[in-house]
Amino acid sequence: MPAPHLPPVQTAPPGPSACSPGPQATAAPSQPAGLVHSAATAAPHAAPPVQPIACQDLDEQAARLDGWNLRYCQLSPGRFEGSVATLEAGGVRLVAERLNRTLLQRGAVAPGRLVVGVPVHYDGHAVLCGQRSHRDGLHLFSGADGFDFLSPAEHLVINIELHGAALQRPALRATVERLAARLGPRPAVHDLPPQAMTALRERLLMLMAALHHDSALLTRGTARDAVERTVVHALAEAMGEGMAEALQPAGAPETAACRPAAAPRQAQAQAEAEVHAQAPAQARLAETAPRPGAGDMHRPWRLVRAVQARIDAHAEDCPLSVAELVADIGVSRRSLQYAFESALGLNPVAYLRAERLNRARAALGRAGSVTEAATRFGFWHFGRFANDYRALFGERPSETFRRRQAQGAGTAGDHRLN
């Protein structure tokens, strides 16, 4: 059975925000079929809980992933178009994000949350913290030290965010703690069986589509409880065959899942029984855990991160050339070339130019002029700067400047890592 489509994208009308819903929205013809509709199909009295919002500004899209502290750096040329759809119920939040350009994403998830990404559509080279990323990999984004993610062009992923302390049922909280322990303390790609990832994708897509069509459901406690159980069970099942069944006591009828949570002593006993029952599933997951090998890129990625750390440490004084960068971090130009081509698929000259252009773009909301933003990051040939800017972002720097000044977007970049 083919996976159902995500709900259609609501595009933003011309106005103050490039990433917001509006009553006059129209369909964007450049978006894939099945992801676009007219605002006329939306309920007139309230927006559905799962309503994808189209974004033409990558900084605003990054800000929509609340609690991720994201910074996006666009690497592939062309006008950015993306969308974000969010479903939140109790201790569960699902965020479907679509991108159409290769981005270097850097972020850190809020503590106390287990966050995994489930790729729906991938097209291009992708790397998460030095590991090759692919469609059948469960992507762990939460954990120590934050993450670096080279996301591919034409990328659609559903992120599962689980806040264990906010889950209604003690058994679910215990399950999330166990899943977090099994996935480990740091971001990584965990290879799961393709059939398991397919089943997980279909469950999440179906859930989001169903709730998009009935906006009143999430106002009811029973529906929120059902969403929590559906998502946690689906993730548990994908990570180990038979795990979801073990969430219920042996011999319990199916209707037990709809009963009130057990008393604390019963819940503790049930959780202990679950841990014992999950041992075979834990062993199976251990077999799929990331291992150094053909897909491992940690050495070149470490050098890429050292370059990023150098740039971040001097955000107002970004290196203007590879020669300056080589001198600052003390490596040979040849080593730098190999690391960047292996990890990101582009040379350090192109990467540094992209970083400077992205930072100049962020500065356009605060600068007094386009010239001020350009010269701040070492662009002294203004015609060449305009051409390079337009080639990367699909618009002239003056267009970005006018739009951001009109938006009062001088603080749009405050959520990004510096």
TrEMBL record:
Chain ranges of the HTH araC/xylS-type domain: 305-403
Region (Disordered): 1-43
Top-level lineage group: Bacteria
Coiled-coil features, chain-numbered ranges: none
Keywords per UniProt: DNA-binding, Transcription, Transcription regulation
UniProt keyword annotation of Nucleotidyltransferase present: no
InterPro entries the record matches: AraC_XylS_family_regulators, HTH_AraC
Pfam families associated with the record: HTH_18
Gene3D superfamilies (alphabetical): Homeodomain-like
Compositional bias segments (type: Pro residues): 1-16
This protein's record includes keyword DNA-binding: yes
UniProt name for this protein: Helix-turn-helix domain-containing protein
The organism of origin for this protein: Pseudaquabacterium rugosum
